[in-house]
Amino acid sequence: MEQRRYFEQLDAVDPLRNIRAQFDLHDDRIFFNGNSLGPPPLGTAKRLEEAMRRWRDDMNAGWWDHRWLQLPTLTGDRIGGIIGAAPGQVVVGESTSVNLFKLLCGAVELQSGSERSVILTDRDNFPSDLYIADGITRYVHRQATVRRVPVDEIIDQIDSDVAVVTLSHVDYRTAQLLPMRRINERAHEAGALVLWDLSHSAGVVPLELDAAGTDLAVGCGYKYLNGGPGAPGYMYVAHRLLPRFEQPITGWLGHTRPFDFTGDYQPDPGIARLTTGCPPLLSLLALDEGVTLTAQADPAAVRAKSVALSEEFIALAGARLARYGVEVTGPVDSAQRGSHVSLHSEAAEPLAKGLAARGFHLELRPPDLLRFGLAPLYIRHVDVFDCVAAMEQLLAEETADSAPRQ
Ligand SMILES: *Cc1c(COP(=O)(O)O)cnc(C)c1O
């Protein structure tokens, strides 16, 4: 497996290669930052041009004729297909942070008849998720408190004080994948709800939200769903909770009859009650294109390739980079890992610079972490080989440069 040819052969029989052909990629650039921003699908520009034409020609009619106002729920259902949610439970909303705010407020509110007042979370959760939870205790539910614990202690910490547990399904740094079904079951036994952030799993890790008994989830549109910069995120509320579920930003489009323009708020009976105002239509069309492309991929093939790419990356890094002090961080067992790999290196900054100059786009987390998103829809096996080979060369050059001259 040390030979480039071996990886080329894997790519030649890759069942996802037809999907890769539908992305607008540069031959000389490799997108290892799909965990941050996926590349554009070929169809996106056409979709946006079409919308521009309708904006110019049809004026206001687009909102009605083209069902643009229904798009948050239509695209939501398409996302539901990717995350294992039956129709009517997913809607596109605002940014992931704002969506999390809405669902977390609603979850604490659902528990307001009980003594439960703790929001339990991983102390290393994505910072925005931590800030949002803190903000809710300061500005909305002042009786609530946030309990931050190490992720390995989450299950033991679910007690009778916990109203809601909120976690990232895949950790944004280490790629640790949490056992969703087990945590849901444990929380439900204790009477707590669980709110998942799917930002680093939807589109690359198989998800069965309904089957796992999930209560609530949010996720990001611009990472592995390929929705484009600033694409809105989405919210999932299980059917069984929806009739009682309230969210705090009660705007006109969440109303059951928005065009009656009445003075009293009555929430839509369905998932549209989570919406607030006009959707960001151009971004939403781009998201719909990304989601439609992502949904074409067979989830089993996506997972199989994601695991293969990660294992190849880890094996090659071990064989070729360990001697330069580069270490793989995060879980070694594929069953506990999402679809990115992080490397720890004292030379992380020069490595990131050298890789960028060679066309490998990835994320540097200063001072010493490099994150490689291994998005199976467009990353090839040979890209992994070439990237590790480039790192080996950069490290060898650096070592030669710093060695004492004879
Ligand atoms: C990327 C990401 C977000 C994004 O939040 P925005 O509000 O859409 O910027 C939220 N949570 C996690 C875990 C993320 O990785």
UniProtKB/TrEMBL annotation:
Top-level taxon: Bacteria
A GO cellular component annotation in the UniProt record: cytoplasm
EC class name: hydrolase
Keyword Iron-sulfur: no
GO molecular function, one term: transaminase activity
InterPro entries tied to this protein: Kynureninase, PyrdxlP-dep_Trfase, PyrdxlP-dep_Trfase_major, PyrdxlP-dep_Trfase_small
Keyword Transferase: yes
Pathway noted in the entry: Amino-acid degradation; L-kynurenine degradation; L-alanine and anthranilate from L-kynurenine: step 1/1; Cofactor biosynthesis; NAD(+) biosynthesis; quinolinate from L-kynurenine: step 2/3
Pfam families: KYNU_C (PF22580)
Record keywords: Aminotransferase, Hydrolase, Pyridine nucleotide biosynthesis, Pyridoxal phosphate, Transferase
BP GO terms, sorted: anthranilate metabolic process; L-kynurenine catabolic process; L-tryptophan catabolic process to kynurenine; NAD+ biosynthetic process
Cofactor dependency: pyridoxal 5'-phosphate
EC number in record: 3.7.1.3
SUBUNIT field: Homodimer.
Family, per entry: Belongs to the kynureninase family.
Described function: Catalyzes the cleavage of L-kynurenine (L-Kyn) and L-3-hydroxykynurenine (L-3OHKyn) into anthranilic acid (AA) and 3-hydroxyanthranilic acid (3-OHAA), respectively.
Official protein name in the record: Kynureninase
